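Work through this protein:
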Amino acid sequence: MGELPPFQRVDKAQLARRFGAAARRYDAHAAFQREVGQALLGWLPAHSDHLLDLGCGTGHFLPMLAARSHRLTALDLSPGMLDEARRRGSGASLLCGDAEALPLPGGQFDTLFSSLALQWCERPERAFTEAGRVLKPGGRLFFSTLLAGSLHELRAAWQAVDGAAHVNRFLERAALERALLAGGLVIERLEVHPWQLRYGAVEGLLRDLKGIGASQVNEAPRGGLGGRARLAALADAYEQNRVDGTLPATYQVCLAVVRRP
């Protein structure tokens, strides 16, 4: 099978800087990320010999992963995130690197854990190929990622304001499955769950997105309304989603277990 076309173009250096700038405040805005990661953690085996946290961020899950593994390695694209992870003192070996070109020798891990990191890849099949390369035969990757339809309320509201999405695109489920196949991995379990957060105002959602560094990576910014006028127009457009006094923000979350043959 030939290489798939890139799903998106990502300036990895800029992405690392963006997450690094958000590292100190990340955990204060990452309730959703903790919920999803906790759900994924429940899928892991009770013990692994050598475990890799792929896209560890601030290292929130490292103490929990350390309790489930004899050896723990953690990798992230952002040096700033790794500085925060280092403060947790989990005993993990920390590495800076890209999921699409892992700076690791092959065949050394029996378990990979990756929660809400792989959606930032340019070519997801490269990340899955790399995951398979560093896994031992029969080793498993447990991952969560976002799929198409995530933040559809915010996307529609922005489009009503200026015709642009202002929200990252995410893979369709079928495209994710094709990328896994192209990466040489076997799907053992794959589930997609809508995950809804509730806000009093759209500003709360925007603060959380900015606070975790998850601003838009795959569409050029567009001019138009100034800051205050744009935000007011966005708030008006988003109001049509209000139910029982709150505004929903819905993510399509994929949880999966895949195996290296």
Q: What stands out?
A: The first helix runs from residue 12 to 26. The two ends are 17 Å apart (CA to CA).
